[in-house]
């Protein structure tokens, strides 16, 4: 090869890298317009509750726990790859949710770099990259689920959520997926409370889902419960493990959202081994943990205090703020012609449907691009989550930002209302 051709040589990326794409980035790239320069830009797009400083970590952890642990010099080294025993025990204790089954032990818990890594590890432990194994995913859903599977060469199939029933699982759709994939289906991923939907399913609905999984051979459930205990409509959050007698559950959790510290990157996967069938999966998770050696030692050391010593008033205050913001959005936008708001129950999001027969836009991407360009309000199109003609509002900004953004959305819809 000549020196000239060497200069133009291109080294191709790996298949894993080529398979790894995030649909949010692809769609957001279509929104690259200059926001109205006469208005302050209000981002309602990023699910980070810390952006404005109105949601903060529990003060006792900041003032005492982290300070004392740092000064002790006890958390400067490598923890066990699965995490510190104290952190894993605290997670196991919190996951003791079924009165008729033994509680999880520390061996059932693996600490991870955020819930995202916990989901990745759960998928990797269950499914092979052989072109046959399939994970069943919700639609709409957090797009990372699909990205993780695609990156690993694992097939996916989608079951529907029903927007007309506050985004409950369409049981018929899930049954069809289970029937169609048969033994190739290695697990069902379920997310409650939901990003992006803001839903919180009833205990009865979760029982129906678990019963269906039992009917199809006790297929394992990956339960993404990162928004556990973040309901604000009065309905408690029901953990999947609390209603399962035979279906094995891999419960995903973390401190990012409940304790308002997404940048700390501390999560976990906790096994609920119904029927003693997860021995290989448990060992697989332990082995996978050695690839990264878990989350940062110092931040991991705060987990026991966060889970056991955070006052109830802290969570109640956060949920009160989320409820007030969600009600403001409902009150302001509910009567706007062409918008259909699905009332949120939990988490940090509201999904809003767009009637393109009333509002003169092509679709949700066009709506979001024009809204940013004309009113400087940034929302994510529903197609980021595989739900066309919806958009997602993040409800964590301060009230004055929410009020101003909703006022601009009203004005935008009025400006773009189709003439009769």
Give the topology, please:
Blueprint (H helix, E strand, L loop, with lengths): L2 H5 L7 H5 L3 H6 L13 E2 L15 H14 L12 H10 L14 E4 L1 H13 L7 E6 L4 H8 L3 E8 L5 E2 L1 H11 L3 E7 L11 H13 L5 E4 L24 E6 L12 E6 L6 H11 L7 H4 L2 H7 L2 H22 L5 E4 L6 E6 L9 H12 L1 E2 L1 E2 L8 E5 L4 H17 L5
Parallel strand pairs: 1-12, 3-4, 3-6, 6-7, 7-8
Antiparallel strand pairs: 2-9, 4-5, 8-9, 10-11, 11-14, 13-14
Helix pairs in contact: 5-12, 6-7, 6-10, 13-15
What does this structure look like?
- The protein has helices at residues 3-7, 15-19, 23-28, 59-72, 85-94, 114-126, 144-151, 171-181, 203-215, 279-289, 297-300, 303-309, 312-333, 364-375, 399-415, and strands at residues 42-43, 109-112, 134-139, 155-162, 168-169, 185-191, 221-224, 249-254, 267-272, 339-342, 349-354, 377-378, 380-381, 390-394.
- By secondary structure, it is of the alpha/beta class.
- It folds into two domains: 22-56 and 312-415, Aspartate Aminotransferase, domain 1, CATH 3.90.1150; 59-309, Type I PLP-dependent aspartate aminotransferase-like (Major domain) (Aspartate Aminotransferase, domain 2, 3-Layer(aba) Sandwich), CATH 3.40.640.
- Strand 4 (155-162) and strand 5 (168-169) form a beta hairpin.
- Helix 13 (312-333) packs parallel to helix 15 (399-415).
Summarize the structure.
With 420 residues, this protein is of the alpha/beta class.
Describe this protein with a few key phrases.
420 residues; alpha/beta; Aspartate Aminotransferase, domain 1; Aspartate Aminotransferase, domain 2; 2 domains; 8-stranded mixed β-sheet; 4-stranded antiparallel β-sheet; 38% helix; globular; transferase; aminotransferase; pyridoxal phosphate; Aminotransferase class I/classII large domain-containing protein; TyrNic_aminoTrfase
